[in-house]
Amino acid sequence: MVPIRVHLIVGAPTHDTNYARLELLKALHADPRVQVTIGEDFTDAGKIAGADALVVYTCNVSPDETELDALESFVERGGRLFAMHATNALIRFTDGPPIVAQGIEIPGQVDTTDTNPRFTSLLGSRFLSHLLLGPMHIEVAAPAHPIVSGLPAFDIVDEPYVVELIGPAEVLLTAQFGGSNPGYVLSDWPQADYPQMYLRRQGAGEVLYLNLGHSSGRYDFLPLMEDGPVTRGPWETPAFQTVLRRALDWVTRA
Questions:
Q1: Which of 66, 81, 174, 213 fits as disulfide partner to 85, beta carbons 3.0 to 4.6 Å?
Q2: Into which CATH architecture does domain 4-251 fall?
Q3: pLDDT band at 212, cuts 50/70/90?
């Protein structure tokens, strides 16, 4: 049996990186064909170039030009990239008084101005904002697509993500919501349908993006606060596990 080489990149400040990495490793390990290498960022161009598939769960990790060359080459030659949650989030804090939102203290509003357009273009979206962690109702937007075919609508607890799609993409999952999060410069969002999973092509390859997947642990907000909120978000929800399993099956398909 020829192994399917997966390079797993997990490094997400303000998220429970160890938990997400463990859950993704367990899910990948369920497929005996898969051989996994691990990184925290995009610095290992050799692992990216040698992979058959990339799985990424990061936050505020911005690849440089050399790393982007490796990522773009991987996708354009026919590689599959599955990215999750805050991978497209490149953030900085504005000057101003601290803000406390849902028990989390931040030093100012979160500014999501696009600081790496080449990266967000590859991913197919950039993160704009999210509402506070809470119940979400997820609808299937493309019922004929194999990744979501036969899935019913489902409810989870997660951060309602607002992203800007960049270029053509097939939206697979959506959620309808609206509201405000004062922790963000872009804070107010009308009631509307917002994409939560999509698929895009680039060259001979494809990028699958899933906004869902928040998790955080007690120490993940250091040094902003000593005791942070602990949440598994949707990770322990059967419907989310089904979506994740299908996404991993897609990215590792021989």
A1: 213
A2: 3-Layer(aba) Sandwich (3.40)
A3: very high
